[in-house]
Amino acid sequence: MRGSVPCPGPDYAEFGGNSSCVVVECGEALLIFDAGSGIRPLGNSAAFATRRSATLFFSHFHHDHIVGFPFFAPIFESGFRLDVYAARRPGIPSVHAVMNAALSSPYLPDLMPIVAPQCVFHDFAVGNDVQIGPGIAVRTHDLCHPGGATAYRVQSGSHSVAYVTDHEMATAGSDALRDFVEGCDVLIFDSMFDERIDGDKPRWGHSTVQEGVALARDAGCTQFVAFHHNPNYPDPVMREIDAWLSEQAGVKAFAAREGMSLLIE
Ligand SMILES: [Zn+2]
Ligand SMILES: [Zn+2]
Fold first, then answer.
1. Does the first or last residue of the chain, that is N or C, have fewer Cβ atoms within 10 Å of its Cβ?
2. Closest-lying ligand to the alpha carbon of 146?
3. What is the tens place of the pLDDT at every residue in 151-189?
4. Distance (Å, rounded) from C-alpha 146 to C-alpha 127?
5. Ligand positioned closest to the Cα atom of 65
């Protein structure tokens, strides 16, 4: 839920303080988007008690999106298989090389030899689809963010969920992204700023909740979920943003809460 850095404490209890991790369950497949600190409780949840495989997609490698990876318990269990995908970008090493560095001294004890038997790393060219079993396609799209980031759209039959973070809409413009998310059931979107609070602040590669709602409306998305909440927006601020979202016409909009699940049918 939370952007940039995990935010523990009572001020974040309602909307959640863990950094980015979203799960899309699609038939037998379990697709995880980003390994922020939220992936730790996910790995310890009942959903993983009997599960033997999952697929993880990184939007990019900023700390808040990878920090939970070494604390995702299933990758330490022999027989579990995690397929890990990230876009290959100029000047940035492969997903295996990046995670190998992140899981090595001096950042951590050398964990890669322990988790490697359970993990299969895949690079892809952004813009290409990743096919996950029969009938599930994951489309990819380039975002505007320092060092680059990838948006994902899970398409299964007529249903679709778009995961779009971290992205600076004010710099990128919205045309290509509007086409990418057009008509999706759920748009999960980088809503790091509220222009009523931080109208003149630098965006640091992020968007406003107002830009997100406008995109969702333009693209005919059914539901809009504000995501990657600002660490400086504790629960009272998030409650106000959530109330503002609920008043928006043309799209069902709300702020993500940790542990929230949506059924798409
Ligand atoms: Zn982030
Ligand atoms: Zn980032």
1. C
2. 2
3. 999 999 999 999 999 999 999 988 999 999 999 999 999
4. 18
5. 1
Under 8 Å CB-to-CB from 145, ≥6 apart: which residues? 60, 166, 167, 168, 205, 206
Place of tokens 């990128």: 172
Which domains are seen in the chain, by residue range?
10-255 (3.60.15.10)
Could you tell me which residues come within 8 angstroms of residue 109 by beta carbon, excluding any fewer than 6 positions away?
none
Nearest ligand (C-alpha, residue 36): 1
The one-character DSSP state at 133 is S
Count the residues in the chain. Answer: 265
All residues with CB under 5 Å from ion ligand 1: 3, 64, 166
The sign of the dihedral angle between the CA atoms of 98, 172, 251, 248 is: positive
Q: 65 alpha carbon to ligand 1 midpoint, in Å?
A: 6
pTM: 0.97
